[in-house]
Specification:
The chain is mainly β and 133 residues long. It is built from no helices and 15 strands. The N and C termini lie far apart (36 Å).
């Protein structure tokens, strides 16, 4: 607990105090629900892979015992209008977006808009997209 001029302030992860009121964290533009049940919220541009590294971008490691996911495989972000997108970062096994019966293989560095319910296939792993407005 921290003592401030206007009294005690309880520190709660992910919650900030603004003008004397508690403000919950904003909902992420997208959540990836992986084939093993792991949920990954995406609040900002995020690179995914076995050991991803993209300058200035949040990195999230994806567990993959078969090594079918590239070290730095793909990136998810949102534009100023809130459109959520995915981009293949030159991966070996590519990125496939499944929307219902329609499947699209992304070319390297190509952006594809994402919608709730889309399935991303990356190597031997897949993730369902949730929360896209």
């Amino acid at each position: 607990m921290t003592i401030t001029a206007d009294g005690p302030l309880t520190i709660v992860p992910g919650v900030t105090r603004s003008g004397g009121r508690i403000v919950p964290p904003a909902a992420p533009p997208a959540v990836l629900v992986w084939d093993d049940g792991t949920r990954t919220p995406v609040h900002e541009r995020t690179a995914f892979g076995r050991n991803p590294s993209v300058a200035g971008v949040r990195a999230v490691a994806v567990r993959d015992e078969t090594l079918s996911v590239s070290r730095t495989h793909f990136e998810i972000g949102a534009d100023a209008d809130g459109m959520v997108w995915v981009r293949d970062l030159g991966s070996t096994n590519g990125v496939r977006v499944r929307r219902g019966a329609h499947v699209r293989d992304l070319a390297p560095l190509q952006h594809q808009e994402l919608r709730s319910g889309d399935i991303l296939e990356v190597g031997d792993r897949w993730a369902k997209i949730e929360g896209v407005r």
